[in-house]
Amino acid sequence: MNSGRMVLSRLRSDLDEGRFTRVLARCERLLASGRRHPVLWSYRGRALEGLRRDSEALAIYREASLRFPGHAQSRLLLGKLCARLGRHEEAHCSLEQALQLDPELIDGYRTLLNYRAIAPDDTAVRHILARARSKNHGAAARARALFILGQIHVEAGLDQQGFEYYRNANELVSSTLGNGSHEYLVANNTQSINAGLLQEFDRSAPALPVAPRFSLPGCRARERALPKHCWHAMPG
């Protein structure tokens, strides 16, 4: 591994462990020294988000998208942050651009579904299904892809196929959680998706009169691991 990759690997590790101040300082020093790499801009923005400096992160992602117009990850991060901040038109546009640049950014489809439906015969589904079947990705990444496929098919009225995707996703999730109880924390800045938001965009399914919340932001909850199921052949 060359020195540049080692630096990025350390920064990624620090981000994953929540050392946002360290990552921010390191990225700013590297950029000030003349390093020109879009990932440094992305990590700088993510560190700012981790420090809850969202307006600064937004400016970084916007500048990175202008400096590196072919870097899909910068546009994905911009889209996801805009969605969280309620800047929905910019979010939708940025997500579409990111996925045009790199249709394998699976997390982009998850956020894009807040703004428009994806047809089951869309080429995007092939990329999502490939991730779900990939042996090069962990169980969590594959489960996320399966949950997205489930939502796509249920919204298209294909409930049986959609529920089978959900079943397969739950099986993967249960295999990673084990049999004990697990605690999770919903972030205070979690974006609420409600009927008013959904009605702003042209989607195939009508918005519900009352959209259920996952949990109150900032509140802890405990849940049992999902029940184990037999693995079913994935539809398609």
Automatic annotation (TrEMBL):
UniProt cross-references to Gene3D superfamilies, sorted A to Z: Tetratricopeptide repeat domain
Protein keywords: TPR repeat
InterPro entries hit by this protein: TPR-like_helical_dom_sf, TPR_rpt
Residue windows of the TPR repeats: 72-105
The protein's name: Tetratricopeptide repeat protein
Organism of this sequence: Kineobactrum salinum
Lineage summary: Bacteria, Pseudomonadati, Pseudomonadota, Gammaproteobacteria, Cellvibrionales
